[in-house]
Amino acid sequence: MIGTRRLILRRWRDADVAPFHAMGQDVEVMRYLGPPSTIERCRAIVAEQNAIADDYGRCFWAIERREDGVFLGFCGVEPGPAGTAIADLPEIGWRLARAAWGHGYATEAAQAALAAEWQRGVNHVHAITVPANTRSRAVMERLGMAHDPDGDFDHPALAPGDPLRRHVLYRIARPA
User: What is the reported pTM?
Assistant: First the structure.
């Protein structure tokens, strides 16, 4: 678990499946991520994230608002996707419900996740998104991450011609 003034980043619970599924039905939330998720896929992702936490010591943690316990989305670090330039390297990622946008929660959660990585002794953390995802890229830049154009790639899990296939790569090094 990771805590901030306003947020708790924690393991996923069965009760997170319904709000996670609802978040995944929002066209704006999913605009740069792909099609809406089924409830079955959401259950599988919850189980997968807890398994990653068991194996890796962290994952894309569920985000809970401290004041009222509301599920806001996820943020954390896990191994980068297979077949990409960051395969098995620490990748930070986040996704928040649209009602949580514009409150600084993504940056706050990501700053806490990065701080935990630096405490672990990790030297570099990576982030990826599609070029058009300006909101996510702005969070990366607020974190101090830098775009590495030489690392941009076509995501192997997406078919040629898929408008979400091209990804940009951002990196940050542990502060001295």
Answer: 0.94
